[in-house]
Amino acid sequence: MLGKEENSVQELVSIVMPAYNVGDYIDESIRSVQAQTYTNWELLIVDDCSTDGTRRIIREWCKRCPDRIKALYLEKN
Q1: Counting Cβ atoms within 10 Å, is residue 15 exposed (0-12), middle (13-18) or buried (19+)?
Q2: Cα(72)–Cα(25) distance, integer angstroms
Q3: Residue 25: which residues within 8 A CB-CB, separation 6 or more?
Q4: Are strands 69-73 and 13-19 parallel, antiparallel or unpaired?
């Protein structure tokens, strides 16, 4: 374990967020990840064939934060 005086590099943390018809909540969930104090993260959102506005919202976030937020769209629920 590194002491406070030593320079350390944060390991990348991959957060996997499942999503299915959560258009009313996905913004809040993504903002919650962004608000964490740990800064070296990527968010992988897995959409399970949502039929509401979830995919549209995910796409918007991916455009805003392409280096951190990525989406995977399943073909079958």
Answers
A1: middle
A2: 18
A3: none
A4: unpaired
d(CA 72, CA 70) in angstroms, rounded, equals 7
Q: What's the whole-model pTM score?
A: 0.85
SS (HEC) of the chain: CCCCCCCCCCCCEEEEEEECCCCCCHHHHHHHHHCCCCCCEEEEEEECCCCCCHHHHHHHHHHHCCCCEEEEECCCC
- Under DSSP, the state recorded for 10 is P
Q: For residue range 10-58, list pLDDT tens digits in order.
A: 999 999 999 999 999 999 999 999 999 999 999 999 999 999 999 999 9
Going through the chain in order, the beta strands assigned E by DSSP cover 13-19, 41-47, 69-73
